[in-house]
Amino acid sequence: MHQERDTVDVAVIGAGTVGLSAALALLVQGLSVAVIDPRPATSLQDSEYDGRDVALSNGILDWLDTLGALSGLADGERSPIRGARVSDLEVSRSLSFGPVPGADRVGEFIPEHRLRDELFTLVARQAGFQPLLEHRLSGVHMLSDHIQLTLDDGRSLGARLLVAADGRGSKTRSLVNISHRTDDQGFDMLCCRVKHSEPHDGWTLQQFDNGGSIATLPLQGQQTSLALMLKPVDADRVMMMDEGTLRAYLDTRLQGRLGDIALTSSRYRVPLSGSYADRFHAERTILLGDAAVGMLPITAHGLNLGLMGARSLAAEVAVACLNGDDIGGDSVVATVARRAQLTARPLYLATQEIARLFTQRDAISRKLRYLAMTVSHPFQHFVGLNCEQRDARSVPWIGALKEALPLWKRSRPA
Ligand SMILES: Cc1cc2nc3c(=O)[nH]c(=O)nc-3n(C[C@H](O)[C@H](O)[C@H](O)COP(=O)(O)OP(=O)(O)OC[C@H]3O[C@@H](n4cnc5c(N)ncnc54)[C@H](O)[C@@H]3O)c2cc1C
């Protein structure tokens, strides 16, 4: 399958976690894969913690494991998630999602930069890998059996399949004429890690309070990663706090749950907005990861969706190779895109709606939140995520649903 340097089977634009996982899964099938990214190899091999401890589901962890991407991580870098709780202090309701019966975790927290480093190391070892680092894509030209790509130094490269994994601001998406929507929630997310004197129970908690939220992500070694959703003006204030003031502020937000806390990382701040591409594919092109759908991190789905897309692409390409079909053909890219849309669209819309509803403080929104949590309560059991098997029939969810729907319609912006 390996071809001339100026022609490859697949060109992956973007060496983020999603682009690299797709590249690795295609390289191990014996394909030649060029990876284009403006960053140098040094920053991809040994990158620094960037505030992201990402929750990955058991299914995605299994896939990464088959690629060998987890074997280089130290035990302390993989923190089991025993379950997830969502609580709303203003309406005094909470939901809990535990593992399926027989499992001891719903997933794991992994620092994303370490996963990316491991993926890059593995990709760099593969025979068919063609690194085109410190470069950007500047043009695409569609030909009958491949795409001609032009790089920023004028060089051209032919590929049968183009994978756009260059993140939320994807230029590749524009080059193949796919537009996208952006939904700005008017919030920032502020992340940092703390050590604490009280043990955590391994459950992650997303607590909505006073028009914002604080999430505690339990890590190994009596550490917790914190993610706060704040109005930009409050984020400015928290970023400027000296360490003592910040400790006191966090302690209040945490209601003292973690005991004495001490910061163990810098503070990181990202604007909270969602983005969604109008289509996930074009001719010979598939959008993966944040280039396709940039989720708000509050439901911890963005990377999981991106990796599901990479896994799905690798499977469809393997089938195409087996059947002697075109790996850039519609049967590959349209199938992967359709499958990804089916999962991503409802999750994206639901996450936007959750963020909107849980950050408003008016009486209708409060009532709606109460009803939404009541309605969702039995689903903790129905979806089989929760080990605490209470009797779902005791929850008056049908009545709550009837009451919630008209209120929800009224609460939506005109
Ligand atoms: C605070 C926070 C917490 C999160 N927590 C979770 C979680 O718990 N679970 C979860 O599933 N997700 C989570 N996410 C989301 C997750 O981090 C992202 O979905 C994921 O990083 C997306 O990876 P990606 O490879 O698609 O994009 P990126 O990581 O953005 O990578 C894009 C790559 O493209 C490169 N690039 C950019 N422009 C070009 C160009 N013109 N040409 C070539 N290359 C280019 C960049 O250099 C970069 O290497 C979280 C996000 C944040 C911010």
From TrEMBL:
Q: Domain of life of the organism in this record?
A: Bacteria
Q: Does the keyword Membrane apply?
A: yes
Q: Where are the transmembrane segments?
A: 12-36
The processes (GO biological process) annotated in the record are:
ubiquinone biosynthetic process
Q: Which residues form the FAD-binding domain?
A: 8-319
Which cofactors go with this protein?
A: FAD
The pathway that the record names for this protein is: Cofactor biosynthesis; ubiquinone biosynthesis
**GO function terms (MF aspect):** FAD binding; monooxygenase activity; oxidoreductase activity, acting on paired donors, with incorporation or reduction of molecular oxygen
Keyword NAD in the entry? The reply is no
Keyword list (alphabetical) reads:
FAD, Flavoprotein, Membrane, Monooxygenase, Oxidoreductase, Transmembrane, Transmembrane helix
| Similarity comment: family membership | Belongs to the UbiH/COQ6 family.
* Name listed for the protein in its UniProt record: 2-polyprenyl-6-methoxyphenol hydroxylase
Species in which this protein is naturally found: Zymobacter palmae
